[in-house]
Design a protein that fits this description.
The structure holds two protein chains of two kinds. Chain A is mostly beta strands. Chain A is built from no helices and eleven strands.
Amino acid sequence: SQTIHQWPATLVQPVGSPLSLECTVEGTSNPNLYWYRQAAGRGLQLLFYSVGIGQISSEVPQNLSASRPQDRQFILSSKKLLLSDSGFYLCAWSRGEMPTDTQYFGPGTRLTVL
Amino acid sequence: QKEVEQDPGPLSVPEGAIVSLNCTYSNSAFQYFMWYRQYSRKGPELLMYTYSSGNKEDGRFTAQVDKSSKYISLFIRDSQPSDSATYLCAASSGTYKYIFGTGTRLKVLA
């Protein structure tokens, strides 16, 4: 069976500090990978998706970036965090067959920027 | 107007009731729909996936899509206190991008 991991679970960072969130998937190969942000009172916002190693598509221009150094590893980064970056960050995967395949979410990382 | 809208709730029902959760959407190109359940401070859990119009049933859950009205529903039969969570709907026109509603908070009272 497939498993998706995210870490850390919780993070408190000062404004202007860097960020690195990691997501890994087990039990599947060539998955599509996604990063979402969920802010209070708002729906899940797609930030990035990747259909393969080194292939990243950005949905929302901002001070975040994503990388996929390995098939089942997806990293979300920032060089300098803003207060508005606070939120619940969710990684998801889907089978790489159809764009609309069901997406399965990880446990999430709660980020607070102070 | 948001592309996918949900009543935020909370919706409170007694244990054993039939629950109806609803979403409306504005983009007539949406054809793929998903329902998720999200417990507090957890990642969303996939409940149902439907394509185009019609009904789909899985255990106590039934998903219904009415494309003519741009309306999707999730019914939960014999609701349990463990069903208390936030329910998210999502829609896609056929791309990688699903548009999510903000969620409806459900409370099932024992």
